[in-house]
Model the fold of this input.
Amino acid sequence: MSHTILQVENLVKRFGGLMATDHCNLEVRAGEIHALIGPNGAGKTTLLAQLCGELAPDSGRILFEGRDITRLPIHKRVGAGIVRSFQITTLLPKLTVRENLALAVQARTGHSFDFLGTVADESDLDEGAEDAARRVGLIDVMEQIVSTLSHGKQRALELGMALACKPRLLLLDEPMAGTDPEESKRMGELIHSLRDEHTLILVEHDMDAVFRLADRVSVLVAGAVIATDTPEQIRNNPQVISAYLGDDESAGPEAVQ
Amino acid sequence: MKSTPSHVRKPETPLLAGLPGPWTAIAVALVLAIYPLIMSSLGEEFYISVGSRVLILALAASALNLALGYGGMISLGHAAFLGAGGYGVAILAKYGVIAAWVAIPAAVGLAAFAALVIGVISLRTRGVYFIMITLAFAQLFYYLAVSLPEFGGDDGLPLSSRSAIPGLSLESDLAFYYFVLFTAGLAFVLLYRLVASRFGRALVAIRENERRMAAIGYPVFRLKLMAFVLSGGLAGLAGALLANLSLGVTPHTLTWHQSGLLMVMVIIGGSGYFWGGITGAAIFLLLEETISTQTEHWNLILGVLLLFIVLVAPNGVMSLRERIIAARRPPSPAHAKAASEENAR
Done:
């Protein structure tokens, strides 16, 4: 069995009286696609935001490769290899695909505090950008302005931006959001092709995709992981079934004070 | 390895918008270099110091443009840095330090330090709050200057002579003009290198989408702070030159009115365009100069003219070039392709 790449211990995040993350524990193994599912409002996005550093937890720890990264700012986590993609496409819409990807490569290669060197020599940025574009199937639209791309291609670029950072752990926030069935299928294949080189945490509402792609699934309810197992086991887990199908009130009193 | 066919014209995006070509820059430098010679041969020596003033405020506006136009940091407090540079030179002169190579870098350093302090605090806020907090800091500096009698209080601090350069007197308007042209020229070269560098590119991209830039690993706060400090330092350089031009500095330099004027210059010139601050300052000051000699109601006419410019070119005068190019150019291949696909259906 492969080693643990990410360990979340007793993570807590409160928003006023609401426990958005309630003593959450999670363990992700290197090289797996680990899906994170749960009913609306279970705290999936909040957890993801804490993993990538956008939100600071109130207590608990996050270990990446055994190193405590709980207080590390976003850009240092990206440097360490944790990169996220967004549920709502978050790109630089006025720039070309090439420029978007080159910016992601530039962040990794540094020199952003290089004030005086002109960007005439782009070869290192271009190569990285083209690698990422080939990976997500955008190599033919490199010079197009992003806002003129179809939604599906923008979703692909959303993933390409994360890939251009050469992540070790990819946090994908609903990569299929808003795509049509054809685009969704292609995104699924793409995600599947990533698992050889990357570890993935996949937050997704499309259950077919989750059960098809994931090696293991964690179920988040009211801010805590109630079960982690293989897709087959999760499907038949009575706790999970009641969380999804049963009365939401059972989680209510704990979540809202 | 290039995968794109070379006939595809690269679209002009905000990353490259308005960067000057070398020939434009050389032409502008040449015109500025012979300008005082023409004026003195016409016997209009007065216009030499008008030229100095335009150059200095063009520098100040361009400094603001770095923060506002490129970095998206809408500062309504850049008068603070202009004033810090001016007071820096004047205070040093009061204590006998008039050597330009000491006084001017010290003034720039003072302004950059002020920008560091103001930036560290203000850059934690966004939008309207950032505007208000930078304004508040500038007002703080204004009242500080007014309330310190040893530095002139309300009346300001006069400069008994201009900063000194060994072997060259800056007392004549002509010599001072060339000193300003040289100094501001260096600053413009620096600014150009800044906005054309990887730093400048990251800055523009942060303006376009801060959250994305953070997510792909940019230390967003530090990059913005660095741009703000550089912007403040360059505004301080303009302030130091301005105090030398007018032989003194008054608290008026620190008023929000002054911050607003710089912002107006950037906006009419074109915020986020390299020539934006320069064009805006030139248009504003030359209009002010010509109209105010004709009528005492010059403010009214100036206001109407500025309104007209903003209506014709909402993104500034420098954006007109792109609009003209776009209007002339036949539809791009991508559009043509989309149109033919439409027709095929």
